[in-house]
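User: I'm new to structure prediction. If I give you an amino acid sequence, what do you actually give back? Let's try with this one:
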Amino acid sequence: MGNRLVALIFDESDDGMGGVGQTGFAPPDFEPERAFAVLEEITQKAKEADARLEDAVVVYRTVDKRIKIKQTKDMTVGKGARRGAFWGLLVGLLLGGPIGGLLGGMGVGAIFGRKIDKGVSDQFIKDVGNSLKPNTSAIMLLIGEEDYDRAIPYLKTFGAELHETALSQETEQAVEEAVLKDDIAQAAEAEYTSKS
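Assistant: Good question. You get back a string of structure tokens that encode the predicted 3D arrangement of the chain. For your 196 residues, that looks like this:
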């Protein structure tokens, strides 16, 4: 049994928390505050409900259209040093960015990219890619299949745009194998991730 990959998309410019000034644009040091607040609540609720939330990160697009990933310390503790690389590679391959070209240059992009691409719905990739614009953020959650049915109604209460897809064990394993290679892990972490 695999996990479900769920994306909750938030417009950070409309809630007074995203730091968007009168110009309507987020400042260069834009922080996805709404997504972090919701992720904190989701994490707490999962603990209280004894639900299996495998992992989660906040993804956002900067004003210069670069994708950034922020991990929370709570979610990644005990998950291994390569978890940032896991998310960097997965999100980078799904939503685009320099990581695809970099992996191609290393001669491994096609091998891992094909395995990962086959295991994620094209519609999910398209929908999340189109929705994640500057001034928006997404919480990307890995939810255990056994907790998915009870998690989705709860996640819908946040009023975010919700997209989900199955993430096969084969796909997760392909990403985990790829980030065991030091050069891939370092590239993915350097391009996309930072700790919050």
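You can read the tokens as a compact description of the fold. Here is one thing that stands out. Residues 15-24 have pLDDT under 50 and may be disordered.
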